[in-house]
Amino acid sequence: MRRIALVNQKGGCGKTTTAVTLAAFLASWGKRVLIVDLDPQGHVALGLGVATDRLEKSIYEVLSGEVPISEAVVNLSENLDGVLSDVVLSAFEQSVAGVPDREKRLSRSLETVSGNYDYLILDSPPSVGLLTFNGLLAAREVVIPVDPSYFSLHGLGKLLETMEIIEEQAGHELSMGILATNVDRRTNFCRKVLSLLEEHFSERCFRTVIRTCTRIREAASLGKTIVEYDPHSNAYIDYQRFAREVLRREKAMAGADAPAKIPTSSRRGADTDNRAVIFTIEAPVNADVKIAGDFNQWVPETLHFNDVDGRPAWQKLLHLAPGSYEYKYVIDGKWVADPENAKTKDNLLGGMNSIIDV
User: Fold this and answer.
1) If one looks up domain 275-357 in CATH, what number appears?
2) Which one has a higher pLDDT value, 342 or 201?
């Protein structure tokens, strides 16, 4: 069983969103997944539409030694089970104060069910305490969601120190991946934060960047993951790419000769070879013409001028995976939809984005 903990001592950086969305994608691709919530706020249950007041057993009873973890497991959807949390968990640290090896309780409890699942996803509280230590000692990998803020970067530094202590004193090695979340590349500050992450942690950063998207918040408010709520949203696209990266790292960790098995289909489209797409728009020869969209994290890329059938046209060749993409052109600094494409979507900013199906 591959064990992945989502950790950052700062709240609001996307830990729970990333945990439930990753679990949902893996489950939809046929992986057997167990998600465990170590946060007393119980947001995993809320994000999946489960009423915590109806839980017969929670992670608190498991960590307290009252029941084996198998008795607290609830089925959430096909291939996805969970051991959920509620506010009672906040009393855990006090209840086991002074008890030897209290930081290893989760790891030991998982031994009885590890053979039942392919993946364990652990959501941790926004703090570095006993519950987080239980998660880190039960995991083999750590994903650190980092949103573009000073506090999140500061939390990253403190967490790295904590991981070093665990490795030195407990002899428990953890592989780490940093995931940039809630990113708006149109702001200078976001671009600066991404640059700092790349400069200092280039080998540890996931290539995927999770863009800010209101649809993910809408989904959570309805007790759904973005996987089922909106397969055409930026959040779906980004988290799907992140989940694929997680699968690809499986191969690197195993040292296998063959590529890790990547899903051949999903709600958004097949994960097959990329296809060549030529974007074309008419504009004066002296114009500054760029294109931005889902496919390049909305960072404008320059088009090349061509004389197409005697018309002053600008073109860009991109290789895209099958799916649906939103995009716009930027002509002399002005964002415009594709005048030759009637398929559009409200971008929630008072304008329309063009849509292309590959």
Assistant:
1) 2.60.40.10
2) 342
